[in-house]
Amino acid sequence: MNGLIEKDHELLLFLNGLGNSAFDPFWLTITGKWFWIPFYVILLYLFYKSFPLRKFFFILVFIAIGVTISDQLASIFKHGIQRFRPCHDELLMEKMRMVICGGNFGFYSAHASSSFFVATFVSILLGKKYKYLSIIVFVWASLVSYSRIYLGVHFPFDVVFGALVGFLLGGFLAELTKKVIYKNQLRPNS
């Protein structure tokens, strides 16, 4: 386990060290939740356009459930495991670029989990209808996730684990959503 933690520290220092103060505003914008509201509105519009109103309502409910579970599960892990964020780790503070810092604990990344939940959910429910949408949402999720390493608020393993949790949760809830909105039908028309 110590070897894995050491590699995680080395990878963080390498990736974080690639940063430059000229790019800090860009990555701070990428990591910000408010910046992405127009993107979320577009995704909701695509759902609205693709599904009847009743099914759209159920999709909204499952999105809200997924984002809530993703965020709260990350919070439970952070307080249960209590792994310090890199910006609070005394061994790393002087070696890394600190742009911002969050709360004390960082395992695992709620940003990575929530963004990969949304990307997976959107991809499963809309990916066949909109040709490049899956690529767009996974690139978006990857950028948001990487921003957390760049800024020094998460270790790479925190981000990878969060992305995996979001991916699995997104897949599970998207399949559950399909069962709910397509019950009493043979197959969806898309």
Automatic annotation (TrEMBL):
Keywords: Membrane, Transmembrane, Transmembrane helix. Pfam families: PAP2. The chain crosses the membrane at residues 26-47, 56-77, 105-126, 133-153, 159-177. The keyword Aminoacyl-tRNA synthetase does not apply. InterPro entries: PAP2/HPO, PAP2/HPO_sf. The keyword Acyltransferase does not apply. SMART domains: acidPPc (SM00014). Residues 60-174 form the Phosphatidic acid phosphatase type 2/haloperoxidase domain. This is Undecaprenyl-diphosphatase. It comes from Epilithonimonas xixisoli.
